[in-house]
């Protein structure tokens, strides 16, 4: 099904006034993503985390990376732009995921009105059409949902790295330029103490009933903790959750 038609059906099947607001806001941010690609030459990816869809705009930098689209823009039924991510070396890609996970949870902890005040800036390598690698500046912005407490859109911008800086990525306050280096010190705030307990037992191979008996809680509570863990770590299953948590030093 065409993504635009799918989104129209999803949003407008809700309260009609809210549905129209979603569509209008989505068009506004799609226009912003398109403008970045036209003015800065970036490869811009706007991902809708509610409908699992992405809108991609191929600026001049796309030619260096061998990315082409007949109209210069396109849409995919996923929030993972695989054909772009495949250009990033595996070691850089996993580091990118971990950094973005820290930033995602940093933004979620902010008061709702401040969640659009920060962006994530990092550097990574990407393969070019010649097979060489170039350093790329990656910027990430989150847009909160206008009607609830979730994060709705993610805007990723890929452009040539025009200047270098020591260390990895950092959060930047957009109004002042103040840098917030999240690093490993923020890892412990991602999961609650109880969620870490549950994840440690999952990592040991215990099933939900065994975890419930060990912690003297109900199986339903264990299931709720499992879902929260997957959401906070932005993974699909418990195996991935344990792997990411180990890399972050949580378990």
TrEMBL record:
CDD domains associated with the record: LuxR_C_like (cd06170)
Keywords assigned: DNA-binding, Transcription, Transcription regulation
Protein name: Transcriptional regulator
One GO biological process term: regulation of DNA-templated transcription
Domain of life the protein comes from: Bacteria
Annotated SMART domains: HTH_LUXR
GO molecular function annotation: DNA binding
Domain called HTH luxR-type: residue spans: 184-249
